[in-house]
């Protein structure tokens, strides 16, 4: 597992309690993974030119790319990557210097770009593109390229968001048991 974690300028990813990191992923630099989060095969995450925070019970699925934006004269803070709690990031998604709230489902192959903000309780459809600095308001389904608000989430969908995260907590616990 340790070969998946790489230092950059003396900073190594920080893992909190009961985190699962698949040995076939690469995490570099200033990345903080909170309790019960999981990183699955072939995820590439670079916290090299800014920092990254991944919340509790959040899962980042296979083939996803996570990155940040460098600080500059025109953008003094750059864009860190901030992902909240109970987030499910689908396979082959790309999150770059954005902020993702709590209880989010990001569909497979979705792309979220610099400065974009996804508020709490959102479903982003597979293959959707969230342009730089766009805000996705809480409580809605968004799809398309560029992503457009389609409709409010149903009660069943709102209930499913934390359930999806919990399903991955159970799965990562099974994987952690296998490695004991």
UniProtKB/TrEMBL annotation:
User: Which CDD domains does this chain map to?
Assistant: LbH_gamma_CA_like (cd04645)
Tell me which domain of life the UniProt entry assigns to the organism this sequence originates from.
Bacteria
Q: Which SUPFAM superfamilies match?
A: Trimeric LpxA-like enzymes
Extract the InterPro entries matched here.
Answer: LbH_gamma_CA-like, Transf_Hexapept/Carb_Anhydrase, Trimer_LpxA-like_sf
Put simply, this protein is called: Carbonic anhydrase, family 3
Species annotation:
Shewanella woodyi (strain ATCC 51908 / MS32)
């Amino acid at each position: 597992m340790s070969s998946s974690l790489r230092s950059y300028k003396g900073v190594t990813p920080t893992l909190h309690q009961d985190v699962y990191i698949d040995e076939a992923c690469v995490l570099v630099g200033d990345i903080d993974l909170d309790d019960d989060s999981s990183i699955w095969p072939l995820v590439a995450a670079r916290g090299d030119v800014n920092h990254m925070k991944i919340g509790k019970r959040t899962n980042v699925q296979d083939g996803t790319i996570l990155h940040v934006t460098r600080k500059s004269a025109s953008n003094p803070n750059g864009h860190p990557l901030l992902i909240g709690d109970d987030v499910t990031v689908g396979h082959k998604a790309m999150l770059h210097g954005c902020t993702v709230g709590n209880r989010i489902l990001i569909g497979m192959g979705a792309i979220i770009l610099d400065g974009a903000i996804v508020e709490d309780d959102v479903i982003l459809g597979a293959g959707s593109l969230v342009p730089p600095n766009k805000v996705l308001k809480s409580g809605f389904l968004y799809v398309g390229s560029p992503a457009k608000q389609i409709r409010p989430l149903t009660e069943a969908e709102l209930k499913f968001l934390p359930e999806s995260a919990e399903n991955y907590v159970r799965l990562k616990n099974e994987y952690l048991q296998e490695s004991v």
